[in-house]
Design goal:
The protein is mainly alpha-helical. It has one domain. It is built from 14 helices and no strands. α2 packs parallel to α6 and α6 packs across α7. The protein is globular.
């Protein structure tokens, strides 16, 4: 079952199952009683983080060391590391954009646009708080801190892959799942490289914050009228009618940006002294066995529920 003060595969998987339960049974129910979309997101985020927060509190009461820095690895990073993390995220963005557009071609439900659209009638700072800052803290605490924190003890690479998959599935739809899977994998590796969950919190904030800022900028430009507003309207119309050939430029930019982001991650690993550790584990055999070791009964149950929710969303939304 759940072990206090020490993350391992089984503890992480039980906490994941509890997280899924509080999200579905608690967050969704309580959120249904409020009309404000911002408040709905706030409630859901708090319920997602609840099992991990309770585990932290119980572990600290049990005198189990410094849980935040040792198990969840919430540690300070240098200013130069922060800059490299930000630049890496900037170059990774075109690849995420391509995956997002690709996923939109194979699904009719574009969840990201709906979420930001619902919140755009709120003050800008409210949108940044509930869409960018809160998820960056709560979700990274859970998926990279708690979940990957246990998986990495069995396998860094397979742990990053599995935590990315779960992070994607927890979004509940195919559109967000595809690019969130990639984000989750990269975020876990960035945390491993820098040995700090703060790194992925920064990257997560940048992704969501940029989306919010662009929506508010576009709304401002469109409301002001003029030629620039017409250009925005035309670009939106073109985006809605994208065909498969139109994805090629985005794919090329994504590959270029992804490669530069990969090289920057290599630089980060050398600067942080984690390059040799990552290389050594990458060369190790038995990765499929390591992946199988991550799969326990609570994880199987959580995956069945999550996949079912994604399928139902694609059918009925």
């Amino acid at each position: 079952m759940i072990e206090r003060g020490k993350l391992n595969v089984l503890t992480s998987n039980w906490l994941l199952l509890l997280t899924l339960g509080t999200y579905l049974l608690g967050g969704s129910i309580f959120a249904s009683f409020v009309s404000s979309y911002a408040l709905k997101i706030l409630i859901i985020q708090l319920f997602v983080a609840l099992p991990t927060v309770v585990w932290i509190i119980l572990s600290r009461k049990g005198g189990q060391g410094n849980i935040l820095t040792e198990e969840l690895r919430i540690r300070k990073i240098s200013a130069s590391t922060v800059i490299l993390v930000i630049v890496t995220m900037i170059f990774l963005s075109p690849l995420l954009t391509f995956v997002n557009l690709f996923s939109q071609m194979i699904t009719n439900y574009v969840a990201g646009e709906e979420i930001v659209g619902q919140i755009s009638n709120q003050p800008f700072w409210v949108a940044m708080l509930v869409i960018a800052l809160l998820p960056a803290i709560c979700e990274e605490l859970v998926y990279r801190g708690m979940l990957y924190g246990g998986y990495r003890r069995r396998s860094i690479w397979m742990g990053a892959l599995m935590s990315g998959l779960i992070f994607g599935l927890m979004h509940g739809n195919l559109n967000q799942m595809m690019y969130a899977l990639l984000m989750g994998f990269v975020f876990a590796l960035i945390d491993e490289i820098t040995e700090s969950t703060v790194s992925s919190m920064i990257m997560h904030f940048l992704v969501n914050g940029t989306s919010v800022a662009l929506v508010y900028l576009m709304n401002y430009v469109k409301s002001s009228g003029g030629e620039l507003a017409k250009m925005f309207a035309e670009s939106e119309a073109q985006a809605e009618n994208l065909g498969w050939p139109d994805l090629l430029p985005y794919g090329i930019l994504g590959l270029i940006g992804g490669y530069v982001a990969y090289r920057l991650m290599c630089v980060l690993a050398i600067r942080c002294g984690t390059a040799e550790k990552l290389k050594a584990e990458l060369r190790e055999k038995g990765k499929l066995r390591a992946l199988a070791d991550l799969v326990t009964a609570p994880l199987v149950l959580a995956l069945v529920i999550l996949v079912t929710l994604v399928v139902l969303t694609e059918i009925y939304m």
